[in-house]
Write a structure and sequence with these properties.
CATH topology of the largest domain: Alpha-Beta Plaits
Helix content: 25-40%
Mean pLDDT: 92
CATH class of the largest domain: Alpha Beta
Structural class: alpha+beta
Number of strands: 8
Number of domains: 2
Radius of gyration: 19 Å
Strand order of the largest sheet: 2-3-1-4
CATH superfamily of the largest domain: ACT-like. Chain A, domain 2
Order of helices and strands: EHEEHEEHEEHE
Strand content: 35-45%
Distance between the termini: 26 Å
C-alpha cells in the first residue's frame, strides 16, 4: 500500500561548510522530494539543526533515516512525524496595485488570521503592502489561498518550517 504523507525529521549536524549540500545531495541522488528544509545554528555554534519535511511512504522514510544516520557529519536524527511539536513557517506576501478598498480588505484578512498566531502588516505604500506571517504550514496555506482568490497581483515567499518537540502532549 502506498501511504504517502508528509514526514518530519530534525537533524543535528556539524556546522561546517558543505554539510547542507551533502544532506540535500542525499535526497537528490535518491529522488526523494523535499517539501521543506530549514537550517540554523543551535545554542552551540559548532552544531546546526535542520528541520526537513519529506513526502514519502513508510519504507522510503525508514531508508532516509538510515541513510542520514550513516553520514559522518550527522550527530543525531530525530523523527518528528508522530511527536507533539510546535511548528511555524515564515511567509511574506506582497500585495501590489491595490485600491483603498482592497487595502482595507487585506487588513481585515490579517486581523482574522491574527487569532491563529503571529501575522502583521510590516510595510505599506500608496498601492501596496507586505504581510508577514509566522503561522503553521496549514494556516499559511489557507492564507495563501485566500490572498490568491482575493487579489490579482501578489508575490509570496515562504521559508521552510521550523519545529521543536513540545513539552506537553497537547500540541501539533
Amino acid at each position: 500500500m502506498n501511504n504517502l504523507k508528509n514526514r518530519w525529521i530534525a537533524l543535528y549536524v556539524e556546522n561546517e561548510v558543505g554539510v547542507l549540500a551533502k544532506v540535500a545531495g542525499l535526497f537528490s541522488a535518491k529522488s526523494y522530494n523535499l517539501q521543506s528544509l530549514t537550517v540554523g545554528t543551535t545554542e552551540h555554534e559548532d552544531i546546526s539543526r535542520m528541520t526537513i519535511c519529506v513526502t514519502s511512504d513508510d519504507i522510503t522514510f525508514e531508508q532516509i533515516k538510515k541513510q542520514l544516520n550513516t553520514m559522518v557529519e550527522v550527530i543525531k536524527v530525530m523523527d518528528l512525524t508522530n511527536v507533539p511539536i510546535h511548528m511555524k513557517e515564515i511567509l511574506f506576501a506582497k500585495i501590489k496595485r491595490i485600491t483603498a478598498e482592497e487595502k482595507a480588505e487585506a487588513f481585515r484578512i490579517v486581523e482574522v488570521f491574527a487569532a491563529s498566531g503571529h501575522i502583521r502588516t510590516i510595510d505599506i505604500g500608496e498601492d501596496s503592502m507586505i504581510i508577514e506571517s509566522a503561522l503553521t504550514e496549514r494556516r499559511n496555506n489557507e492564507l495563501c489561498a485566500l490572498l490568491r482568490k482575493t487579489f490579482k497581483h501578489i508575490d509570496i515567499v515562504r521559508g521552510g518550517a521550523v519545529a521543536m518537540e513540545a513539552i506537553s502532549t497537547s500540541c501539533r
